[in-house]
Amino acid sequence: MNEKQRLRKELLAARKAMPSEEKAWRDKVIGRHLLDWLEAHPVKSMGVYWPHAGEPDLTPVYPELVAWGVTLALPVVVERDAPLVFYAWRPGEALVKDAHGVMAPVGRACPVEPELLLLPCVGFNEAGYRLGYGGGYYDRTLAAMPGVKPVGIAYAVGKVDFENDVFDMVMELILSESQVFHAQVHGTGQLNPRNSGKRS
Question: Is the pLDDT of residue 116 over 90?
């Protein structure tokens, strides 16, 4: 087991063990951070995700984004080693589990190349790189969409040390419940964190 695999296993176990009430307030704060950031940096379209395996649940803010006029899109795995494809979706529309057990839109008539992409993180490091599940889907997707803004969504406990691989893509921003990490290089290549206290 290499270092990334070990970290992935530990972080997923910690996420699974998080009490439901604790997870709920953390998710709520992350959602608030997202809305606050988008008020200052509006977009017309956004690739979102349907949470699974204990990922931060941002679904309560999706209707508010739609009310702002943002087109939401959910990812679909089309091939094992291909980028994800995003299809327009609105809260309340039907979803179906894909081959990986992730909920995906039933209706797939409107492919979307989003301006901004939310990426659920198992973990992340000081340099702004995401630790995912190891499949490489999001890395391939970001490589195929050079204009998209990648925003990582993570719990603060997921901030760990690891060496990124050459194909890993850096996040423009990482939102957690305790800090907003901006990908602004300050000589060391590190992220610039902005502290944020617990909010309910």
Answer: yes
| Residue 187 pLDDT grade (very low, low, confident, very high; cuts 50, 70, 90) | very low
Cα 85 from Cα 76, distance rounded (Å):
5
Q: What integer pLDDT is reported at residue 107 of this predicted model? A: 84
Q: How far apart are the C-alpha atoms of 152 and 94, rounded to whole Å?
A: 26
Question: Do residues 34 and 61 lie in contact, with contact meaning Cβ atoms separated by under 8 Å?
Answer: yes
What is the bridge-based pairing of β-strands 103-105 and 95-97? antiparallel
Within 10 angstroms of residue 59's Cβ, the number of other Cβ atoms is 14
**pTM of the predicted model as reported, rounded to 2 decimal places:** 0.89
Q: Tokens 């691989």 label which residue?
A: 165
* Nearest Cα to Cα of residue 45 among 95, 89, 105: 89
- Residue 78: CB atoms within 10 A of its CB come to 11
